[in-house]
């Protein structure tokens, strides 16, 4: 069972990530929020440092790890050894880095969400071939957001290439990445089973950048929209099984989310913690400090509200660590990943907005980062599956219903 204490081997990692957040991310947070679409050059130095660190022992970005179940522990635990591996390490480092800035984390080279798809689904040859490359992930379409099964982008085999046609929107790090993992259907008439993911070179002439979005939050990160027009991709760039089967098709592609949803939950946990700590500091300056030894109802209203927010934060953090721990131990974690994403996303938005309210005009102004965190928070409740979709997934799994039975 999960141990609620921080694993000793990850304490240097957490310390290192916090140092980066405090000395690089936090000081540059406001600058790149104001200078949207400007690439944070400070991150090149970090990327070089990350490349020299061992997996699981150094700072990890948004897509550093993957979820694989073909080896290792069984789904029921069995006699397998309990482990804390790359998923736990990634979540812990993300929590610290997002205490600094979410947008800058999403801008870290070679740490994109597409790297999670490659780490989760790629074969050994592909993993080696794409190692060290920065991969974005292109799922969302104008008419296919949280319902990934509604994807209309097509992939047609033509000789040694697949030809991709369609449109992708809201691609995080799409303009800056080296690769884009594109989800497309081999045969729309066969539904979910025909959906596959393809690794497309960003320089591919068939992958055309339409625009880079202006956004409410995470402005340091670029968000791109693409059109694929007869985009030819070598068939060796298809991730997973090329056959159209339920197991090797959409189910295999969705395995990526078992990894990325806890990572997004970790982002939310980090931002929530930053908001709480800053609010506690500002309230303390005003003479309001929560007392853990007294009931909330006999404390000032602001102190009582802060205690309630801290309880919500702790619940989100533990759910996130549980989902990561299950992934490291090769346990099916789709339910826990969606629970963590739903809880952390909603909690993060609630905490950020209520912290602004608790701090009044100070929280609303630009002299503090609270107003920025309130803007950044909302995306964490939306991307990688909205709050509503996560709750729907949780309900289906708890009730044993299919997507057709519970919509």
Q: Any idea what the shape is?
A: globular
Q: What fraction, in percent, of the residue positions are helical?
A: 40-55%
Given as residue ranges, the uncertain stretches (5+ residues, pLDDT < 50) are: 71-79
- Helix-strand pattern: HHHHHHEEEEEEEEHHHHH
Question: Looking across the biggest beta sheet, what order are the strands in?
Answer: 1-4-5-8
The fold-level CATH name of the largest domain is Butyryl-CoA Dehydrogenase, subunit A, domain 3
Number-wise, the strands total 8
What is the top-level CATH class of the largest domain?
Mainly Alpha
Number of domains: 3
- Overall pLDDT confidence: 89
List keywords for this structure.
11 helices, four-stranded antiparallel sheet, 3 domains, Butyryl-CoA Dehydrogenase, subunit A, domain 2, Butyryl-Coa Dehydrogenase, subunit A, domain 1, 407 residues, 14% strand, Butyryl-CoA Dehydrogenase, subunit A, domain 3, alpha+beta, 46% helix, four-stranded mixed sheet, single chain
């Amino acid at each position: 069972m999960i141990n609620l204490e921080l694993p000793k081997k990850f304490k240097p990692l957490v310390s290192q990530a916090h140092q980066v957040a405090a000395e690089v991310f936090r000081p540059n947070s406001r600058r790149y929020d104001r200078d949207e679409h400007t690439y944070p050059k400070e991150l090149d130095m970090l990327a070089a440092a990350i490349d020299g660190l061992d997996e699981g022992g150094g700072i990890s970005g948004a897509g550093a790890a993957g979820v694989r179940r073909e080896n290792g522990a069984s789904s029921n635990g069995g006699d397998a050894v309990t482990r804390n591996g790359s998923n736990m390490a990634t979540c812990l480092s993300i929590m610290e880095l997002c205490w600094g800035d979410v947008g800058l984390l999403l801008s870290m080279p070679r740490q994109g969400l597409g790297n999670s798809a490659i780490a989760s689904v790629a074969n050994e040859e592909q993993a080696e071939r794409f190692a060290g490359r920065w991969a974005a992930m292109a799922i969302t379409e104008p008419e296919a957001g949280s319902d990934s099964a509604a994807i209309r982008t097509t992939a047609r085999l033509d000789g040694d290439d697949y030809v991709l046609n369609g449109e992708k929107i809201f691609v995080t790090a799409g303009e800056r990445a080296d690769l884009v993992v594109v989800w497309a259907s081999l045969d729309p008439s066969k539904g979910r089973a025909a959906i596959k993911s393809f690794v497309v070179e960003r320089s591919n002439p068939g992958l055309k950048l339409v625009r880079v979005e202006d956004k409410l939050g995470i402005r340091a990160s670029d968000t791109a929209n693409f059109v694929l027009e007869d985009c030819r991709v070598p068939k060796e760039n298809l991730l997973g099984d090329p056959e159209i089967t339920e197991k090797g098709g959409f189910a295999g592609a969705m395995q990526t989310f078992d990894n990325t949803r806890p990572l997004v939950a970790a982002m939310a946990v980090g931002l929530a913690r930053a908001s709480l700590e800053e609010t506690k500091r500002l309230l303390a300056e005003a003479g309001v400090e929560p007392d853990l030894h007294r009931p909330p109802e006999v404390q000032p209203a602001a102190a009582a509200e802060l205690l309630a927010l801290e309880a919500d934060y702790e619940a989100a953090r533990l759910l996130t660590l549980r989902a990561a721990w299950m992934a490291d131990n090769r346990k099916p974690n789709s339910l826990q990943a969606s629970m963590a994403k739903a809880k952390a996303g909603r909690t993060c938005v609630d905490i950020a907005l209520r912290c602004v309210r608790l701090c009044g005009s100070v929280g609303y102004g630009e002299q503090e980062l609270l107003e920025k965190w309130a803007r950044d928070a909302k995306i964490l409740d939306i991307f990688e599956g909205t709050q509503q979709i996560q709750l729907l997934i949780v309900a289906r799994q708890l009730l044993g219903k299919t997507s057709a039975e519970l919509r």
